[in-house]
Design goal:
- With 368 residues, the protein is α/β, with parallel strands linked by helices.
- The chain has twelve helices and 13 strands.
- A hairpin with a 5-residue loop joins strand 5 and strand 6.
- The N and C termini lie far apart (77 Å).
């Protein structure tokens, strides 16, 4: 083949690829539009528990508020608080009066669409949002989502104004809606997983979430259904809360991966099944947009807070067994490096104060 013919062939191939890319883009756009139309027309009455957050009720340090207003790099991130609560009734009020088994920060880079997840260990000794100090999971029980968000903002120098809360049934329905999650179950986890499945019942005043369950019988990679996945997330006997948060993040990652492979009709069914079982600051339309755009995002990294090597554990008087940040300042610096690697940061004076108070309260019990 002559040089001229080769060049013509390459140009035709390049042109064909561009046409195919354009067609794929058009098809994707039509699919997303169709999904939004379908969800909006079939889910008008979702029963979603929607709670608008008043900016005046959000506690954040003046230094961080100034940074949000002036630092374009910091503005490039969207941060969402994700809470999992021990609510077993399908119609439970998810907005307050229950402790959080899951406290997670979901940080989205708006440019790259990369997501990072950071679990805050529920027994971490922190300012619980009202200048009293206790296990951080008590914030939600005492003051609902507002106090829980304030607890995170205050201790971690964040400025979050949005949240999503899910109870037991929400987790079960989300996992089942995506066709289950693929998890590598260890031999040691099996008995606890099945025991937790057997215990997923509401109080005697409320209907049971399940009437029967399928036990896990062997270790290894397998697809867990909603009940099994919820029980897997609750295992604490192996690895305490540190490994439990890893399990929780693994299940969340799997839900997202499975959702990205779903058709518009399947995503519509997911919205139908799950939306009524969550409490959130997001509007229905905002949730629809999230579901429609799920394919754009990817979870790139996860971690736990406080960080390895920067915490200790011990009985802190009447507060019981706690996870204690040995230095809150250093932990928050590491958290910001993890979530916002391109943003310059130093702890606010508020965090310095909280760090000193935590040290004073816990040193007699755990030393340094």
């Amino acid at each position: 083949m002559s040089t001229g013919s080769k060049k013509k062939s390459k140009r035709r191939l390049k042109k064909r690829k561009l046409v195919l890319l354009f067609v794929e883009l058009i098809v994707m756009i039509f699919a997303i539009v169709a999904l939004i139309i379908v969800i909006k027309t079939t889910n008008k009455e979702t029963g979603i528990q929607n709670f608008a957050l008043n900016s005046e009720d959000i506690s954040v340090s003046s230094e961080i508020k100034q940074k949000v207003q002036t630092d374009e790099k910091f503005q490039n991130y969207t941060n969402i608080a994700f809470f999992g609560v021990d609510a077993r009734n399908k119609k439970a009020d998810l907005s307050r009066t229950t402790r959080t088994d899951v406290i997670m920060i979901c940080s989205i880079n708006n440019t790259t669409k990369d997501i990072k997840l950071a679990s805050v260990y529920r027994d971490t000794y922190l300012n619980v949002g009202n200048d009293s100090y206790n296990k951080c999971n008590s914030a939600y029980a005492k003051g609902g989502y507002e106090q829980a968000i304030n607890m995170l903002n205050m201790n971690l120098d964040l400025y979050m104004t949005d949240f999503i809360t899910v109870g037991f049934q929400g987790v079960i329905s989300a996992v089942d809606a995506v066709g289950g999650v693929d998890i590598d179950v260890t031999q040691a986890e099996i008995s606890y997983l099945n025991d937790y499945q057997a215990s997923i019942y509401a109080t005697e005043d409320n209907p049971r979430l399940i009437t029967d369950y399928v036990p896990v019988t062997k270790p290894g990679m397998q697809t867990l259904n909603g009940q099994q996945a919820l029980a897997y997330c609750r295992i604490r006997a192996i690895g305490n809360d540190f490994q439990r948060t890893e399990r929780q993040r693994a299940v969340l990652q799997q839900i997202m991966l499975k959702a990205q492979r779903m058709t518009p009709a399947q995503l519509n069914q997911l919205a139908t099944d799950v939306f009524p079982l969550i409490a959130t600051s997001f509007t229905f339309d905002e949730l629809v947009s999230m579901v429609a755009g799920v394919g754009q995002y990817r979870i790139v990294e996860t971690t736990g807070f406080p960080f390895d090597g920067y915490y200790t554990t011990g009985m802190i008087g009447s507060k019981g067994s706690c996870v204690v940040p040995t230095d809150l300042n250093l932990n928050v610096i590491k958290l910001h490096e993890f979530l916002f690697p391109d943003v310059e940061y130093s702890p606010s004076q508020d965090v310095v104060t909280y760090s000193e108070k935590i040290h004073a309260d816990t040193a007699p019990y755990v030393g340094r």
